[in-house]
Amino acid sequence: MPVKELFGKLTDGTEVHSWSLENGGTRLRVLSYGAIVQSLEIPDRHGRYENVSLGFGTLEDYVAGSAYFGALIGRYGNRVAEGRFPLDGTVCHIDVNDGANSLHGGARGFDRRVWDVEPFETGPDVGLHLYLTSADGEMGYPGTLSVKVTYTLTRDGDWRIDYEATTDRTTVVNLTSHVYWNLAGEGSGSVHDHELSIAAARCTPVDAGLIPTGELADVEGTPFDFREPKEIGRDIRGADPQLLYAKGFDHNWVLDKGVTAEPVRVATLRDPSSGRTLGISTTEPGLQFYSGNFLDGTLVGTGGRAYRQGDGLCLETQHFPDSPNQPSFPSTVLRAGQTYRSTTVHCFGA
Ligand code: BGC
After folding, report:
1. Hey, how many other C-beta atoms are within 10 angstroms of the C-beta on 78?
2. Sheet holding 277-282: strands in order across?
3. CA-wise closest residue to 318 among 145, 201, 175, 179
């Protein structure tokens, strides 16, 4: 069974716990604060374990930090232009916390909430159910949202996330996980030598504020073509305006498979030095690949080393950014009586 320990206390006295679990060769530590993956350890080709996810050693650092290390993101992952969108004939105004836009649910998103945690062991699986209620109007979003996220470690060491949410009033939902990966180990340097493949022939180009223009652009012949495994560093210094806007990759790929009832494999990340691999399968239609562009050497991670630009990367399964303002994108609207469901599976190898 997962092991619970006190991790720290918030300034108002609320206790935050860590939950450690292990199965199939994968070791995971999760915090009740932000449903944060505080560490995820997997072996390399020689069986040597390393924590491959960026994070902090203390609660104070998570509270002070702003990079969303390992966090569960909601109510809306990624950006909503100018923090407003039309919904059923009215305009909703949500918290603006990223220039003129709203990012990752607003200033106090799900990454800054304390979740209720219930451990389980079912057959060969070990995991945690995490619960959160987001009040009607919180961060500007309409409807009371009841969220249940399940983190499961399977007998094969896969880390599976099942998201579920219901509302009492029409709202928008787009949940994701914001783990920064470095398969050579957090704090070990740049991920530019990792190879990545993404099963997507198109992506959603953005404006200077990283809001999608609405266009679905072919990746063919551009730095965004990851259909065959490619080193992350190969094209990242290209002069493509899209790369300059984001200081690297920070875009949504339109997964070829679209929305699916079951998770389908969409991406593979490989670190040639350690041999570690990460495969991602999802039910979602989009994948945000963010190459850690805004890490600037000012945050010191779990192992005591500073994180610089490109020292970790995120692969966030999602609906497309700014969907509430883009009628041509798959809908993120959730109505009373419906259940939002989404699944993403991370499988590891070496
Ligand atoms: C976004 C980046 C943002 C980062 C914050 C990513 O999901 O795509 O634009 O800077 O989160 O850590």
Report:
1. 28
2. 116-122, 125-134, 145-153, 159-167, 340-349, 277-282, 264-270, 195-198, 230-231
3. 175
Residue 221: Cβ-neighbour burial (10 angstroms; 0-12, 13-18, 19+): exposed
Dihedral-angle region of residue 245 (phi above 0 means left; psi in -120 to 50 means alpha; beta otherwise): alpha
Confidence of residue 65 (pLDDT cuts 50, 70, 90): confident
178 is catalytic: yes
For residue 136, give Cα distances in angstroms to 94, 169, 174, 176, 325: 12, 8, 16, 20, 21
Q: Which residue has its alpha carbon closest to ligand 1 atom 4?
A: 67
Q: Compute the distance from residue 192 Cα to the ligand 1 centre, in Å.
A: 18
What separation in Å is there between the alpha carbon of 100 and the centre of ligand 1?
15
Active site annotation includes 164:
no
Q: Is 347 helix (H, G, I), strand (E, B) or coil?
A: strand
The token pair at 270 is 């490989």
Please list every protein residue whose CB sits less than 6 Å from any atom of ligand 1.
Answer: 67-68, 78, 210, 250, 288, 290, 294, 314, 316
Provide the b/e sequence for 100-135 (b: ≥16 CB within 10 Å): ebbbbbbeebbbbbbbebeeeeeeebbbbbbebebe
Q: Considering only CA atoms, which of 117, 159, 100, 134 is closest in space to residue 3?
A: 117
Q: What percent of the chain has pLDDT over 70?
A: 100
Terminal C-alpha separation, the chain: 26
CATH code at position 34: 2.70.98.10
- Residue 189, by phi and psi: left (phi above 0), alpha (psi -120 to 50) or beta? left
In this predicted structure, what is the pLDDT of residue 66?
Answer: 82
Q: What is the pLDDT averaged over residues 303-322? A: 98
Query: What is the Cα 35 distance to its own chain's centre?
Result: 11
Contact in structure between 78 and 250 (CB atoms under 8 Å): no
Whether the model clears a pTM of 0.90, i.e. scores above it, the answer is: yes
Alpha helices in 237-299 (DSSP H): 241-246
Number of domains in the chain: 1
Residue 41 lies in domain = 3-349
Beta strands in 26-115 (DSSP E): 26-31, 37-43, 49-51, 71-73, 79-80, 84-87, 90-93, 102-103
